[in-house]
């Protein structure tokens, strides 16, 4: 590796922080734009799900491959390639005139993020060789990444109100272009090393998860007995077990299954997967409820999430201290239980609920989410050899992202199925045509033209379906809390867990 001059270290850090801020921001800022996208591009529930899922699915499927490709062909080269792809995908998304082209552009963004993300922390570690200096740099990098997640919902609403939904993608273009020019100048070159690409594992991963998510999203609309849905469900059923077999036998696996022989690491993986499953699945639908049913503006819907964001920030150091003193079991189980209770409680509030009535639910949700982030990172540092820590981090990050993908798909399937059944029955009673392709009451050519009784029926059906989905997510998180409590139960006579290292490896949170 060619080390950069000392004066360039600050520029390297600024470049990596800016690009990670952009990637994290893009994960969450799009949620507040979904109702407007649905209105202007005439997207149904499944179309809006794919706007989110297209990015996440490609990112999750290619994240580990992005790390392997960077090792083989050079971190700097792959980082620059990923940044260019992500920026181009953002411009293409902003210019999209149909739901299909927007989904394709979001998938292209996911490819860029998968190439970009693994190299960022690796470059940072190699540039900042002094331990204290590196700790400060990693802390700043991690903080800026979290800032992108925190300000995304707050920025997204006003941007959509002022400039339209395309602006949430245009905002990435100047940041990406500036970052690309700066990165090309200041990032050091790394010597590539020989590493075999796990092509069979990659192919099976993309095929299995892609088929599974497609079947879950399209099943409610097409019908669960539709030939295409059944075919893809069968493909997923064959491909995912085959992935496990191939990865178990591979000498350079994309997904290192040996980590799951350690029950503590397995508990951390289950926690990361299930938190993403429940919470990001719910986060997909809440803006639709607030804007389409409650009539909130995108700005108001974004600001409504500030209490949850604030509690995530508060909970992070708390969970780190609890993990250092008591091990990961207490914060992980408590976080999962809090999130389960919050989702269940949220299902008690309908379209006419006032914000002060349920703001406590958002606070509990943020506290629960924040309680789970640091323990997973600390667990990796304690349980995995340093030489394998990067692979472990990437594996658990992939499971987190896939958890979010599956969460939106599964909870979306529950919501869509319930919505279809309830709305069909309600419209039949009213003698109205069951136009289920636009279940969102805010669609300008849908809700505005509907008679009041039909409009109210659509609202009521959506709220009822959302409540069922939230309760399913709550039950899944409660079950996960029990599983993690059992996995992390300390054997009798075991010594207390060692103190956590002062600077755990950060986990890149997505969505």
TrEMBL record:
SUPFAM superfamilies: MFS general substrate transporter. This is MFS transporter. Keywords: Antibiotic resistance, Cell membrane, Membrane, Transmembrane, Transmembrane helix, Transport. CDD domains: MFS_MMR_MDR_like (cd17321). PROSITE patterns: MFS. Belongs to the major facilitator superfamily. EmrB family. The lineage of its organism: Bacteria, Bacillati, Actinomycetota, Actinomycetes, Kitasatosporales. Its main location: membrane. It comes from Streptomyces flavotricini. Pfam families: MFS_1 (PF07690). It is found in: Cell membrane. The keyword Repeat does not apply. The keyword Transmembrane applies. The chain crosses the membrane at residues 49-66, 78-97, 103-124, 136-156, 162-187, 199-217, 229-246, 267-289, 301-318, 330-352, 358-381, 402-421, 468-488. It is a multi-pass membrane protein. Residues 12-492 form the Major facilitator superfamily (MFS) profile domain.
């Amino acid at each position: 590796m060619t080390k950069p001059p000392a004066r360039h270290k600050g520029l390297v850090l600024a470049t990596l922080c800016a690009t990670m801020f952009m990637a994290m921001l893009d994960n969450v800022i799009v949620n507040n734009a979904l109702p407007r996208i649905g209105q202007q591009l005439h997207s149904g529930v499944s179309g809006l799900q794919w706007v989110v899922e297209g990015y996440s699915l490609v990112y999750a499927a290619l994240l580990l491959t992005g790390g392997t490709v960077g090792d083989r062909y050079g971190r700097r080269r792959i980082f620059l390639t990923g940044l260019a792809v992500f920026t181009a995908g953002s411009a293409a998304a902003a210019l999209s005139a149909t739901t299909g082209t927007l989904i394709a552009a979001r998938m292209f963004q996911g490819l860029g993020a998968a190439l970009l993300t693994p190299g960022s922390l690796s470059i940072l570690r190699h540039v900042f060789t002094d331990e204290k200096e590196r700790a400060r740099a990693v802390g700043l990098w991690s903080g800026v990444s979290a800032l992108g997640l925190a300000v995304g919902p707050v920025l997204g609403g006003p941007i959509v109100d002022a400039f339209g939904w395309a602006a949430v993608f245009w905002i990435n273009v100047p940041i990406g272009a500036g970052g690309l020019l700066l990165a090309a100048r200041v990032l050091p070159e790394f010597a590539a090393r020989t590493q075999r690409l796990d092509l069979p594992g990659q192919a099976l991963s993309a095929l299995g998860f892609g088929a599974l998510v497609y079947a879950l999203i399209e099943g409610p609309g097409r019908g669960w007995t539709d030939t295409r849905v059944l075919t893809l469900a069968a493909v997923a059923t064959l491909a995912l077990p085959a992935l496990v077999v191939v990865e178990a036998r591979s000498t350079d696996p994309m997904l290192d299954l040996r980590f799951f022989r350690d029950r503590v690491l397995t508990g951390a993986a289950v926690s990361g997967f299930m938190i993403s499953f429940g919470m990001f699945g719910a986060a997909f639908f809440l803006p639709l409820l607030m804007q389409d049913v409650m009539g909130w503006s995108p700005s108001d819907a974004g600001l409504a999430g500030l209490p949850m964001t604030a509690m995530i920030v508060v909970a992070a150091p708390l969970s780190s201290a609890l993990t250092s003193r008591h091990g990961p079991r207490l914060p992980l189980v408590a976080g999962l239980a809090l999130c389960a209770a919050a989702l269940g409680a949220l299902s008690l509030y309908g379209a006419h609920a006032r914000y002060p009535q349920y703001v406590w639910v958002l606070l509990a949700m943020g506290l629960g989410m924040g309680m789970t982030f640091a323990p997973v990172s600390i667990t990796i540092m304690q349980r995995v050899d340093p030489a394998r820590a990067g692979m472990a981090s990437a594996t658990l990050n992939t499971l987190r992202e896939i958890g979010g993908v599956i969460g939106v798909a599964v909870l979306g399937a529950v919501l869509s199925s319930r919505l279809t059944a309830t709305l069909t029955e309600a419209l039949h009673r009213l003698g109205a045509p069951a136009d289920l392709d636009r279940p969102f009451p805010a669609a300008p050519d849908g809700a505005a033209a509907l008679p009041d009784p039909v409009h109210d029926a659509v609202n009521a059906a959506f709220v009822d379906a959302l409540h069922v989905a939230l309760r399913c997510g709550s039950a899944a998180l409660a079950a996960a809390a029990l599983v993690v409590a059992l996995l992390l139960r300390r054997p009798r006579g075991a010594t207390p867990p060692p103190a956590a290292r002062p600077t755990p490896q950060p986990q890149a949170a997505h969505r």
